[in-house]
Amino acid sequence: MNLILLGKPGAGKGFIADILKNEYGFYHISTGALLRKNIAEGTQLGQVANGYMAQGELVPNDLVFDMLKDEIGKMKSKNCVFDGYPRSALQAKSLADIVNIDSVLFVDVPDDILIERVLSRKTCLACGNLSEIGQKDTVCKKCGGELVTRADDNLEVVTNRLNVYNKSTAPLKEFYADKIVVLDNSGSVEQTKQKLNQIISDLLKKYGENI
Ligand code: AMP
After folding, report:
1. Angle between helices 44-55 and 155-164 (to 10 degrees)
2. For residues 145 and 125, is the Cβ–Cβ distance under 8 A?
């Protein structure tokens, strides 16, 4: 089963993807995390992407799509979750050319909550893991790496990322109208997990094998 996570910046796509990866064995493809890895490694792609990401703008699709195709080639699971791709109609069409998408999980959170969450979250420099919201940890619980505030998690850039989302990504809800399942992520972690478990077990019965 191939699943897309759609939602505004800070809606919790990374958090949901982590559960799908760790508890259901999904192969997790996050274009944002792959781009950040390229930046950390100082690759040519990373150097170009950095300029766009620092402003909260989309990195040109030809670059992101080549990177995505490489990552799809490494897939080892029958179930894959796309996190952060597609972000525009052009990207949705590019993706449709290479994989079949079964379902699109729209992670829904009101704007005031998601801005607060983005501004208070930390990300591991080494493995990309997100800290739990509200925790004061300075090291990653998974790998012991340093937890930092992402360069694009500040109010000015987040505001632009929301504008870019509204202009380029929001229309994808129409594009995928027949595949969308809404997951409300405005409550507690436990509430979200319960709703997610129900949605995923229904989807796996319909599209995937038990894993
Ligand atoms: P994310 O980690 O998904 O919040 O993405 C962080 C940033 O990486 C975005 O604000 C974009 O600048 C860039 N990015 C991630 N995915 C894409 C994509 N599919 N297309 C273009 N830019 C992307």
Report:
1. 90
2. yes
Residue 173 token pair: 């809800």
Which alpha helices (DSSP H) does 57-178 contain, by range? 61-72, 89-98, 111-120, 155-164, 172-175
Distance 209 CA to ligand 1 centre (A): 30
Alpha-carbon gap, residue 181 to 106, rounded angstroms: 6
What the block records as the tokens of 111 is 């704007």
Q: Which residue type does 2 have?
A: N
Query: What's the token pair of residue 179?
Result: 């595949």
**Which amino acid residue places its CA nearest to atom 5 of ligand 1?**
32
d(CA 83, ligand 1 centre) in Å: 9
Express each pLDDT in 150-193 by its tens digit: 888 889 999 999 999 999 999 999 999 999 999 999 999 999 99
Calculate the alpha carbon distances from 90 to 65, 86, 95, 107 in Å.
11, 8, 9, 21
pTM reported for the whole predicted model: 0.91
